[in-house]
Amino acid sequence: MTLPRLLIIGPQGSGKGTQGARVAEAFRIPAISTGDVFRANVKEGTPLGQQVQAIIEAGDLVPDELTGAIVRDRLAQDDAAGGFLLDGYPRNIGQVGDLDAFLEERDEPLTGVIELSVPREESIRRIPLRAAEQGRSDDNDESIAKRLSIYESETAPILDVYRERGVAFEVDGVGTLDEVFERIITALAARGIVA
Ligand code: AMP
């Protein structure tokens, strides 16, 4: 059996948060969303929240060192021993290196990288709908444009690294929630990752 040590990568509005949570639930592993961790800290006004609030609202990336420390702490907790799903991390090449170093030390290689693909126009169409539903303070036009451009310039290139390792696979993110979820589960099963 292959343990589900997974990443889900996709542009803003691709539905990766929703699908990531469903996949994690199906495998009974924690879904670790760095964006959610930051938002929760901002909401509670913690020192971390105060440190990152302006960065998030502007649509910039939080420094790698800070983000990496949060992910390492979370992955070291007991409930991640049987697998995990990371949503929104890594987001650039530096973070890929940080995660590799951590996972190599623990002899816990990634087993699947889900690339959720949606056309740019579709993700742009979906973001305002989410803003209305969730009231995210970073879903304003300027921040959205910056986040999409960071995705294209810094995050999309990390997929090449994972493709070269043979661990990444693309899933069409256009369809109903159930359709997309089934595609992910089927693709994971083809890699020996079954719930
Ligand atoms: P998300 O919910 O994944 O779209 O993340 C929301 C915001 O949190 C991003 O626009 C960044 O400001 C910050 N963030 C989340 N994940 C990361 C990461 N891996 N590296 C740096 N900043 C991040």
Automatic annotation (TrEMBL):
The keyword Glycoprotein does not apply. AMP binds at T34, R39, D60, L61, V62, G88, Y89, P90, R91, Q95, R136, R147. Its EC number is 2.7.4.3. One of its GO terms (cellular component) is cytoplasm. It catalyses: AMP + ATP = 2 ADP. Keywords: ATP-binding, Cytoplasm, Kinase, Nucleotide biosynthesis, Nucleotide-binding, Transferase. Pathway: Purine metabolism; AMP biosynthesis via salvage pathway; AMP from ADP: step 1/1. Residues 33-62 are annotated as: NMP. InterPro entries: Adenyl_kin_sub (IPR006259), Adenylat/UMP-CMP_kin (IPR000850), Adenylat_kinase_CS (IPR033690), P-loop_NTPase (IPR027417). PROSITE patterns: ADENYLATE_KINASE. CDD domains: ADK. ATP binds at G13, S14, G15, K16, G17, T18, R130, G175. The keyword Transferase applies. Its main location: cytoplasm. It is found in: Cytoplasm. Catalyzes the reversible transfer of the terminal phosphate group between ATP and AMP. Plays an important role in cellular energy homeostasis and in adenine nucleotide metabolism. Belongs to the adenylate kinase family. Monomer. Consists of three domains, a large central CORE domain and two small peripheral domains, NMPbind and LID, which undergo movements during catalysis. The LID domain closes over the site of phosphoryl transfer upon ATP binding. Assembling and dissambling the active center during each catalytic cycle provides an effective means to prevent ATP hydrolysis. This is Adenylate kinase. It comes from Microbacterium lacticum.
